[in-house]
Design brief:
With 229 residues, the protein is of the alpha+beta class. 21% of the residues lie in helices and 26% in strands.
Length: 229
């Protein structure tokens, strides 16, 4: 996974683990070893991780938070060099933020609950920069063809009717388009937003997918972002 909008910044490091790297969900047996191997392989020595609670909290992290799990957070922001932020996802979208003038990065875990709660605007507010300068990459997640919802969730997203479709009596929601609309409403420029086209549900050999697999124990990928130097 690569975003062209980030290609001019060699000190910006970001990515997403794959199924072959093993489950990365915090607190699951074996995940700590998987995470250690993965972060070592990508050169992320100091990592601050969001707990994930499907809300909008996106606090700022600093070097003192390295190795910690930030409680009740679904996103993190930092301007510290060599500190990597991490969230876990398994159909939800990792959303990567970078502001070059202030050298600030952010990372959000964006599922439908967090998106509805305001995690996208929460990250931008914590970054406290001019949104016109923010670059944003929307990572792999479950795409509309496979994200079936019920009427109660559709009602939550009533303001995004253009991103809701009905097929054979079923309702489907286009989450990356909702994220994009929220980014634009927050002041980001469309040219500074890029979305990966990969669907976690479709890529069975590459990504975990909760909707596809319904595992007894949660399996997830780890997303990360940070600035070196």
């Amino acid at each position: 996974m690569e975003f062209q909008i980030f290609s001019k910044y060699p000190r910006l490091k970001y990515g997403l683990s794959q199924k072959a790297d093993g489950p990365m969900k915090l607190g699951i047996m074996g995940s700590e070893a998987n995470r250690s191997r993965f972060f070592e392989a990508v050169g992320a020595d100091k990592v601050a991780s969001a707990e994930i609670c499907h809300g909008r909290s996106a606090p700022r992290a600093n070097l003192a938070d390295a190795g910690k799990i930030i409680a009740r957070a679904d996103g993190l922001v930092t301007s510290a060099r060599n500190l990597f932020l991490s969230v876990t996802v398994a159909d939800c979208f990792p959303v990567y933020f970078f502001d070059a003038p202030s050298q600030t990065v952010g990372l959000a875990h964006a599922g439908w609950r967090g998106i509805a709660a305001g995690i996208i605007t929460g990250i931008i507010k914590t970054m406290a920069v001019d949104p016109k300068n923010i670059l944003c990459g929307i990572g792999p997640g479950i795409r509309q063809d496979h994200f079936e919802i019920k009427g109660d969730v559709a009602a939550v997203f009533g303001g995004y009717s253009d991103n809701i479709s009905n097929r054979q009596g079923k309702i489907f929601l286009d989450l990356p388009e909702v994220i994009t609309k929220q980014l634009l409403a927050a002041g980001l420029q469309s040219a500074n937003i890029e979305a990966a086209e990969e669907c976690t549900y479709c890529e069975a050999g590459k990504y975990f997918s909760y909707r596809r697999d319904h595992p007894e124990q949660m399996q997830a990928m780890a997303a990360y972002i940070g600035l070196t130097g």
